[in-house]
Amino acid sequence: MSHKAGKTTPARQQYLDFKAQFPQALVLFRMGDFFEAFDEDAEIVARELDLTLTSRPTTKDERIPMAGVPHHAVETYVARLVDKGYHVALVDQMGSEPVNGIVPRQVTQVVTPGTVTENSMLREHQNNYLLALALLPEAHGHGFARAGIAYVDITTGEFAATEVSGEAAPTRVLEELTRLRPREVLMPQSWAGQATLPPGSHLTPRPDYAFEARTAADLILRHFAVKHLASFGLAEFPLAAAAAGAVLHYLIETQRGSLDPITTLRSYSTESFMTLDAATRRNLELTETLRGDSGPGSLLHVLDRTVTAMGARLLRQWIGQPLLELERLQARLEAVSALHASGTLRAQVLHHLRPISDLERLTNRVLAGRQAHAI
Questions:
Q1: Are 237 and 169 within 8 A, CB to CB?
Q2: pLDDT digit string (tens) for 146-155?
Q3: 106-115 mean pLDDT
Q4: The CATH number fitting domain 10-111, selected from 3.40.1170.10, 3.40.50.970, 3.60.10.10, 3.90.1150.10
Q5: Which CATH code fits 130-272?
């Protein structure tokens, strides 16, 4: 960060210390009734939010750029920044009385595209995925021969990982990215320049060591309090474990150490589901029409008669990941047949489902220590 050398005020130094902790984020610093951004951050915030860029003195000979938003509306402004792919660190005041001449402050939240938790920033009927890719280079060439994929939705607690290998590995990775449409993708810094992501996904390069297999495995075992990766079906899939560990490592940083909502880890195989590339998904209009919207014309719009947010997200997942396993297909068909055959049963089920709030997201807000609306 560029600023002139010389004596700074205590508040200025406090801000610089927080910015040094989160150099990749836009730091919004609470000062009275406003959250303020300074220096280069202020220029970005003013440009992206169409705000007036002002300045304030920090020393006798120095003025710095500044842009602010009202504290009571900060969530709206943060949502707009995150939707553009920015990371935002909120530094709030911990009281109004100065301690040793300065108001105590701390980072209360770090918001990134894949770690959004506020309801106003989420789409009720869609998951908000954070995904990590761990890649093994080909012996000869510039591509990769194997990949680990892990994704999480911290608002519901869903956490899953898989591994793909062979000549089809790059294709399978692209298929999973297209299916999941993650809001944020974590990749090792050394691979980030080769990334090709679907529209709406934002890339976050991470240090290569965050994907180191042994470190990732230790983090998984410690978080879930288990002794072996076999507990999750990952003993033979080190890259899947590496990707899952990279997700946990990132959440520890952005969620201020709280991983309480993440209580399970599921391994899966892409071989259990029908392979659908991006062109096939688009042409079949599974969840979006050819025009790119989810309104009339898509299969999801035709089938979706769900009455809860949880059911809507589940239906979207099922349509996007068609089963190939006969036993699971048969069980699903029998459930549908039972409901189709009895109008009375359907009416009773709908009657009991309609009043149910989004228990997945409410529960995880409570686990994360955030206020939840009454159920």
A1: no
A2: 999 999 999 9
A3: 92
A4: 3.40.1170.10
A5: 3.30.420.110
